[in-house]
Amino acid sequence: SLSLPQRVDYETKRMYTLKVEGSNPHLDPRFMSWGPYRDEATIKISVEDEDEPPVFVAPSYTFEVEENAPEGTVVGRVHAKDTDVANNPVRYLIPRYTDVEQFFSVNPEDGLVTTTRPLDRETQPWHNISVSATEIGHHQDTKVRVNIKVKDVNDNPPEFATNNEVLMCDTVAPGKVIETVSAVDKDEMVHRQHFSFTLAPEVAHNNNFSLKDNRDSTASIYVLRKGFSRLTQDVYFLPVEINDNGVPPLSSTNTLTVRVCSCDSRDTILSCNVEPYVLPAGLSTGALIAILACIVILLAIVVLFVALRRQKKEPLIVFEEEDIRENIITYDDEGGGEEDTEAFDIATLQNPDGANGFLPRKDMKPELQCPLRPGMGHPAPNSVDVDDFIKTRIAEADCDPTAPPYDSIQIYGYEGRGSLAGSLSSLESVTTESDLDYDYLQSWGPRFRKLADLYGTKDCSLQDADEADDS
């Protein structure tokens, strides 16, 4: 069998010719005279073409572009070709995940890479993207790395290296250096480039401080006089111009703050605050602000309290203890149900003192006023006519506009005298003679025999007692 020790390339070599020899290593001496036992053959191997992705001319690309270059500036060009026999055209594309902010674009036909916006070197000095090449009509692609360097342009002015205040003793001597300042620049510094310092024109001839450029990107601040007082002026502002001497040259004005402090004899700073000199004369600004804030808060609370009291219509101070208990009024008659909504005036429930008085009905008035019968208001003491008594009460209720509701139940606790009907009291039935005959209990069977004997014996004893009385 034949095997490949390495890969073959159709584009490099399409045909291979091999010469193969076969022999028998184990010969029998009896057949040596029959001739040589070996043979040779020629084998030709053809390499078939396989569809492969495009191949870039270079393994990677590195380009440079000027900082702040306008949109559409050409960065460089990448090139890939199809190595197959078909030699199909190639299309180029920048995968978005390699250029998320889309700073660059590529021409899909010729692979020309251009910018889509101005670039800032101080924000991102290098951009590393990828370009993909794909044959038309095929899905296989090849990617190549493209590194783009943003060339620096002097577009940032210099500034102070630190923004700290300069603390100066009020007893400082004239000619003493109180600070040495330096500068920094976000742009790249070329060889032998340095910063220069000068005082701003408006303070160039001041009587307090002077500046000396040391020619090494630093400057010294000197004091010109003595007798600085914190009460007169505790802070001085010194504007300084800084030039970077670049191409093009840029400069900026930075302000140096000098604060006057109290020091001891060894020039050790004791205090730089101005409050100790203000306190003997009165309160400090912070204390006054705090007091005013408290007063405003108290006024707001009082106004809110008064507004709430006025909304509730209650006095600010309660002089008497109010009785807030619920007043329960009991009525002896029954109302007319849910439909009788005006049987009682709600004022009666709110005013317990008027519960015993007579209030006229507000739902309706009787159309007729019935005259009272003679003697109807005061019935005779010995009258036992209950029917007339009830009719009298009904007539009074119908004709009286101050009477309770018409659909109410009137309860009367009157019982007449001399009625033909006897008393219904169960207590009196024990002493009366009973006309009941309990002989039928004998026919109820043995289960009620005991009961029949008890009532039968009682009847017999009563008869014997009657006969004894007759005799």
TrEMBL record:
The keyword Thylakoid does not apply. The chain crosses the membrane at residues 287-308. SMART domains: CA. This is Cadherin domain-containing protein. Residues 2-56, 57-160, 160-278 form the Cadherin domain. Pfam families: CADH_Y-type_LIR, Cadherin. Cadherins are calcium-dependent cell adhesion proteins. One of its GO terms (cellular component) is adherens junction. It comes from the Eukaryota. The keyword Manganese does not apply.
